[in-house]
């Protein structure tokens, strides 16, 4: 037996929180009866409908993609540009990206149809670490690194303490390479942080998401996560709760 909202999330209907909203709105039926209360447990023998449409429990899938430049981190694009889900057209189940990488940002991107895990991994309170390597304009110094580590006021929020280190400085070309690890995932956050300390980003690559990397994957290549990796992601969420 599992909680109804958890089964709905695993079926790709919505995140767990989104599934709870559907239940409260009276849009979910179990064995022909409308359910509006939380805490209902269901089994594989129960018939579940959302908006009068039966749901089937999908096999949960988990992939890591080495996202190329010039690809949208979305399930679709009104401008017709290539999206990350286009790499998975051969799969019958619908998968979607966990969070986003900018159009011109490359690197580690997790895709799944596990709505509950997606909601947990992207929720700020769990603080999943994400590591980036940025090529920036200018010769970055220790003072800028300290500001990145201490937290910065950007837009209407202050970034949490981060990890930062200088990888290379080429004074002749006026370029630097910086490694930055953050816990949040706000829109364009890494680019905004580096711009705030005076070093605009020219290229950005996410090298690590939690413990996941793109090791062995060329740009545009992907692999399915092993079961122990999925369990490790769930444990990571649990440890950070």
From TrEMBL:
Gene3D superfamilies the record matches: Alpha-L RNA-binding motif, Pseudouridine synthase I, catalytic domain, N-terminal subdomain, RNA-binding S4 domain
Top-level taxon of the source organism: Bacteria
Protein name: Pseudouridine synthase
GO molecular function: RNA binding; rRNA pseudouridine synthase activity
PANTHER family: PSEUDOURIDINE SYNTHASE FAMILY PROTEIN-RELATED, RNA-BINDING S4 DOMAIN-CONTAINING PROTEIN
EC number: 5.4.99.-
Keywords in alphabetical order: Isomerase, RNA-binding
Gene Ontology terms: cellular component: cytosol
Source species of the chain: Alkalibacterium gilvum
């Amino acid at each position: 037996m599992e909680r109804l909202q958890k089964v709905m999330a695993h079926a790709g209907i919505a995140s767990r929180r989104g599934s709870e909203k559907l239940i409260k709105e009276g849009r979910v039926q179990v064995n022909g009866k409308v359910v509006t209360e939380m805490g209902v447990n269901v089994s594989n023998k129960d018939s579940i409908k959302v908006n009068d449409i039966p749901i089937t429990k999908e096999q949960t899938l988990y992939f890591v993609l080495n996202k190329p430049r010039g690809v949208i981190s979305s399930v679709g694009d009104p401008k017709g540009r290539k999206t990350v889900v286009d790499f998975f057209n051969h799969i019958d189940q619908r998968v979607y990206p966990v969070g986003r990488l900018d159009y011109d940002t490359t690197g580690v991107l997790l895709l799944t149809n596990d709505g509950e895990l997606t909601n947990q991994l992207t929720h700020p309170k769990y603080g999943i670490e994400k590591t980036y390597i940025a090529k920036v304009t200018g010769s970055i110094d220790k003072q800028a690194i300290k500001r990145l580590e201490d937290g910065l006021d950007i837009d209407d929020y202050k970034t949490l303490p981060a990890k930062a280190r200088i990888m290379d400085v080429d004074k002749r070309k006026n370029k630097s390479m910086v490694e930055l690890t953050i816990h949040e995932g706000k829109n364009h956050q890494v680019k905004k942080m580096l711009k705030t300390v005076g070093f605009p980003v020219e290229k950005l690559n996410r090298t690590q998401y939690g413990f996941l990397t793109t090791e062995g994957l060329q740009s545009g290549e992907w692999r399915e996560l092993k079961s122990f990796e999925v369990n490790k992601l769930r444990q990571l969420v649990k440890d950070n709760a």
